């Protein structure tokens, strides 16, 4: 497998004037990207297998630095674009004189939605494997302009950079989703030559606020990939109705595993289905019901940072996630929920995502989150926080009655509250940890 840097060099030779990366403040061709990264790599000479701390801004300058670090044989340690100088300095001190295992390329920190953020050490091979997995599953083309709204210190967005540049296509970076900018970028593309990575909350924004501009987008958007959180069947159907010619994918991935599987839900709106294992990855389900993965796209191990920085290799090359899942008769993986999300109410274990998936299908619900609240008898009871759609009235009794038609009695929330919006993580997922600590 070729590294992403080797792909960039190849495209710089064959299509030197092709745009590689575009952002709000500039753009570079493949030839320019290679030249600038090669020049900057000289700053990191003598730092082989040592960490270089970078703040992952959504711009050309960051990607030039990122690839330059790799070209020098160093390891890119990625912090959010919002990281303070003090945080950067602390990380630099923690990594002083630390030597990473041979073949290491990146350190990506988990989002912290399932606990304290941890540094996953990603190899050059894992990056290449993730790129090949995505390209294979979603049929990338060199003429695609891939729109990436979000933080590049997270695998969800960064992996799209891997695949897009490996294919010789064009990345268009955005710090966060701006619908007007999305429509404007897509309008400049050839027919069916735009693509985008949008987390479920962004897809819901598109379906609710896209309006007449969706008609133009329908002729431009070749495919959309989503992932990172549960996408309900109703939203799947809505986005397909608005973009009938667009291929739609739901992907299973994590910082530790890379991109594992993806499911095309263009014509099959199956909530929770994330498809079959991709070429460089495998999965099964543990006796406890957790998704376990192995293969070339997995991390090498964790960077442990305490009084002393150490590397903890991945045991036996397999990683057991905190996600509950099932594998159907066709070998497709179905994501249920994260172990930490499970709500125990009156002795019953409830997946909040299953409740939300049903509620999100109701016309009066724009978005919702199911949380646990203390209860004197049940220990914990379910409460549904609902953002109304177009200011439609939320009547708890009516919502409960509709939910009872689709769910078991113990899955129907006892309490309901209308809210203006939901708490989200920086990369657009529901911030369940925030609600749990509230």
Automatic annotation (TrEMBL):
Residues annotated as domain AMP-binding enzyme C-terminal: 354-429
Keyword field: Ligase
Superkingdom per UniProt: Bacteria
Organism encoding this protein: Hoylesella shahii DSM 15611 = JCM 12083
Protein name: Acyl-CoA synthetase (AMP-forming)/AMP-acid ligase II
PANTHER family registered for this protein in UniProt: 2-SUCCINYLBENZOATE--COA LIGASE, CHLOROPLASTIC_PEROXISOMAL, ACYL-COA SYNTHETASE
Pfam families: AMP-binding, AMP-binding_C
Any one GO BP annotation for this protein: fatty acid metabolic process
A single GO molecular function term of this UniProt record: medium-chain fatty acid-CoA ligase activity
AMP-dependent synthetase/ligase domain residues: 9-93, 107-303
